[in-house]
Structure formats: structure tokens, C-alpha cells
Amino acid sequence: MARLVECVPNFSEGNDLSIIRQITDAIETVDGVRLLDVDPGAATNRTVVTFVGEPDAVVEAAVRGVRKAAELIDMSKHHGEHPRFGATDVCPLVPVSEVTMEETVEYARTLARRLGEEVGISVYCYENAALQDKRRNLAYVRAGEYEGLADKMSTAEGRPDFGPETFQPSTGATAVGARDFLIAYNVNLNTTSTRRANAIAFDVREKGRIKREGNPLTGPVVKDTDGNAVYLPGSLKCVKAIGWFIEEYGVAQISMNLTNISVTAVHTAFDEVWKRAEARGVRVTGSEIVGLIPLQAMLDAGRYFLRKQRRSTGISDAEILKIAIKSMGLDDLGPFDPNEKIIEYVLQDKAGKRLVDRTVKGFTEETASESPAPGGGSVSAAVGALGAALATMVANLSSHKRGWDERWEEFSDWAEKGKAHHDRLLALIDEDTDAFDGIMNAFRLPQGSEEEAAARNRAVQEATRRAIEVPFEVMEVSLASMETIEAMAQHGNPASVSDAGVGALCARLAVRGAYMNVRINSADLEDDSVRKDFLDRGAKIQEQADAHEAKILEIVDQKLQN
Q: Fewest C-beta atoms under 10 Å: which of 98, 104, 134, 303?
């Protein structure tokens, strides 16, 4: 899974589409960044832009977008209904996949520093990226808005974290933050009653409902010592919710914002609404995701419902997604296309560009072509993936073998391990070809001057090391997969023991084939100690794979003789 970060800058222009287009054009000049959404608002005079990509690319795109906004938007002439204090008002980063919040905080602070130093923007860090605890709250950071910014910046407490400490009338200030992914999620009900939908929403939302004395509907409101209404908290943390009626579909919905899906996941929210609705005599008919959702959130949902069915979770992502979609009724009001709703799928290259997206025939024909890549490294990874896939298949078959019902979780765990190895080896098929292309690109660098020659040599050495690291990882992962293969040969469905045997042959072949690549590419490394380390460790892995294969085949032979 790719390392992805989302950026959601809010620009203080919602009417002049020419200005908005120039800003988004600047963002799209960065390779590896995908513009997902542009949402201008005339009344608010504000445009929310959403783009996503690898973290470094996203930071660079944000810098270019904010710089262009600073050139085109004059805050001294801005008016709008939404709170704001800068040409780029807020610019939060959101981790999507394979990036932690801690890492996102560092990227956000890097972005803040670059905006201050390179673009000359006064920047305040907020939410998780805040450098001062009281600045975690955006409302606090933006208090007084643009009109009060000059006075704020004149005080020690109001100085920005980065950039100019004096008021810039044209650009104002920008708040840069790191926050969790927010999912807009609606649950459909078999009622037209907004009142009943609201009652369920109050049951589940974190804020809950107003506490009353006596009758919970009509009794006097309970207030605290400051005269504020006291609330009875709902059952779901990090959830905002309200009930409403959708004229288009003729049903009521619970409309939710899940502000931290690591605290309350989509499937958790669905099941809780289902439970609370049933208690009130209302039935949930399905749900819908507004906008996009990370792949991991959908896979987590699918695995959750599979476990409830006591079924193996080590199946393909496509099958897991199918379970998630059907379990939550995401196709209730219209089709749910993963390629249009899941962020990673929206971003991925068109099928056929990657080797793993090709048919078996297409992959083998590409291998047989005049091009030197894909070669032995990619083929070794492919063979290793097949070996891990066979082990995963045996585990999945074993998990629902008649009479083994109580062992489903044992085999599901093995299937998960096998699938993880299978997925990684599939990714390494293309990474090996990319590593080869990296060497070719390095050799094409100019070397006319001493500086150019030195830079070219460094690039060649870095690319060579990468071309060793990839097949070396193929060796490591293929060897690791043999643990699952052995377990399936020993304890899996006896009818599939030969499949485990073939898996062992594939894993050992992958290790040996990848080691040949390690050896041939190591010859071009100038660092003798690094070369020796790769070769020595590779030789040990090969020995272990040979021994492990022999052990598994012995088990298989014994079972085949019985």
C-alpha cells in the first residue's frame, strides 16, 4: 500500500473561477499529486480543495498552491460569511495510508516552515501540529479573524510560529495543521420521521442530548453552575450526527461526521446505529459514504463482518471489499464502485501499466520481449507470490472444512500471514523493474564536469544498492512465507497437502532466483563491506530456504504415502 497524505487547503476566494483554476493548476504541477475535489462557495467566498499523494510531493504542492494564492488573493478586499484570516486560511494534512499521525505532524511543520521562509506567509500551527497546546484549537488560533490579526500579531502571545511577525495586509495568516481523516457517513432508515432519526442521532453522537429533569422530552433543561445546558453523552466518540429527511430518496438518514476513524470506525458506527434504531422500532436499510474513504477503513470493515461470520479474513482485497459493501448496504441508494470511492484506487495507475495488473499471458510475453526488464528479479518475486498464495489458499480451505468449525480462527490467522507475504511479493515484482530503471536513469546523467561526474557516480551507487535491496527483500519475504507453508503442510486440509508442497518449491525457487540478482548487482557496488554483508546474509537465507523446503517436502511425502 502506498504512503499517502491528503491536503485540504481552504482558499479565501469562492467566486472568481479563474483565480481558483490558477491555484489548482499550480498544485497539479507536482508529479505524484492527484487533485480530488474543488468545492467553491459563493456566499462564504471560500474554496475547499482536496488533493492527495506521497507526503513530500503533497508538501511541495501545498507550497506552490499557497504561493499562487498569495499572488492572486488580496485579503484587504475579502468579504465572506465563513471565519477566515488569510488568503490561504487553513491548510491541514491528513494521513491516509502507511503514514502515522506523528509523521504527518512533522510534514505539517515542515510545510509551515517552508511557507514562512520561502513564501513569506505568517503561519500558526494547529491541531496535532500545534507547537503550543492552546493553539490546538483552530477557533483559538483564528480568534479575531483577519480584522483582528494586526493587533494579535503585535503581542507576544499572538506571534506566529513561522514567517513574518508583522501583519501582512494582502495575505493575512495561514493555519497549518495535522488532523485525522474525516469521513462523511450517512445511515439510511426505513422511516420518513426526522424526529425519530434525530433521536437515534442523539443516542450515538459524542455530544449526546440535552439532559432534562423528569420527562426526557419535555422536562426542564438541567444547567451547570455557569447556566449552560448539561448534555448526556452519546455512545460513539469522535462522532457528530444529526437526523434529516432526504427528499430525493424519500427516507430519513442519520448524517454523521466520523472525525477520527481510529477511534470510531465506519463499521462500528454502522452497527451502533443499527442497534439504537432497532431499539426504537426503526430498521437500517443501508448506508452511504459521501466523498472518498481510505482503503484500510474498508478492509477493516470487511474483516470485521467476516469475523462475525466466523470466516477467514485472509482472502483477497476484492472479496473483503464485497463483504464490506454488502454488510453496510453501501449500494442501497446507488452503486458503490471501489474504483471511484476508495482513495488509493482513484489514484492508482490505469490497469496494464503495472506488471501486476497484467494477465499471466501479458506478463510472460513482456518478460519474453527484447526489453531487459522485467527479468529474473521480477520473475522470482512472482514465483514467491504464487508460493505464498498457495499457502493462503490451503489456510482458507482449512478454515471452513467440514468438522473443523472451531478451528476457523486458527486458519484465518495463517491465511492473514500468507496474504501479507503474497501482497508484499506482488509489490516487489514492479519494484524490481523500477530498481533496474533507476540504474539506467542514473547512467544517463551528464558527467561533463567533475561535479557532474561525482553526482552521477553517487546516483549510480544509490540505484545499484536499491537494485540489490529489492531482490534481497524477495529472499527475506519468500523465506518467511515458508512458515505458513509448513504449517499448512502439517496441519492444513489433507486434501490440499500437494498444494503446500508446490508452495514450498516456489518459495525456495524465489529465494535462489533472487539471490542470483543480489550477486550480479553486488558486483557494481564500490563499498566492499556493504557488498560482503549482502552476499553473506543472502547465502545464509538461501541455506535456510533449502533446509526448510526439504523439511516441508518430507512432510508432504509422508502424507501422500498415507
A: 134
The pairing of strands 122-127 and 173-178 is parallel
Structural domain boundaries, residue 302 = 183-347
Catalytic residue among 430, 432, 499, 548: 432
- Supply the DSSP string of 521-561, one letter for each residue: HHTT-S-HHHHHHHHHHHHHHHHHHHHHHHHHHHHHHHHHH
173 and 188 share a domain? Answer: no
Check residue 535 and give its pLDDT. Answer: 96
**Catalytic annotation on 133?**
no
Q: CB burial class (10 A; 0-12, 13-18, 19+) of residue 446?
A: exposed
Residues 379-411 as b or e (16 or more Cβ within 10 Å = b): bbbbbbbbbbbbbbbbbbbbbbbeeeeeebeeb
- Collapsing DSSP to helix, strand or coil, 242 comes out as strand
Domain end position, chosen among 323, 347, 371: 347
Please, which residues bridge with residue 458 across strands?
none
Pull the grid cell for residue 12. 479565501
Q: What is the pTM of this model?
A: 0.76
Share of the chain above pLDDT 70, in %: 99
Per-residue pLDDT, averaged over 482-493, amounts to 97
Q: What is the mean pLDDT of residues 373-391?
A: 95
The H-or-E segment that residue 57 falls in is: helix 55-72
CATH code, 338:
3.30.70.670
Number of separate domains in the chain:
3
Long-range Cβ contact pairs of 301-305 (< 8 A, separation 24 or more): 301/265, 301/266, 301/267, 301/270, 301/327, 301/328, 302/327, 304/265, 304/267, 305/267
Neighbours of 215 (CB within 10 A): 8
Same domain, yes or no: 434 and 502: yes
The residue annotated as part of the active site, out of 16, 74, 82, 331, is 82
Kind plus residue range of the DSSP H or E element containing 379: helix 376-399
- Based on the residue annotation, tell me whether 82 is a catalytic residue of this protein: yes
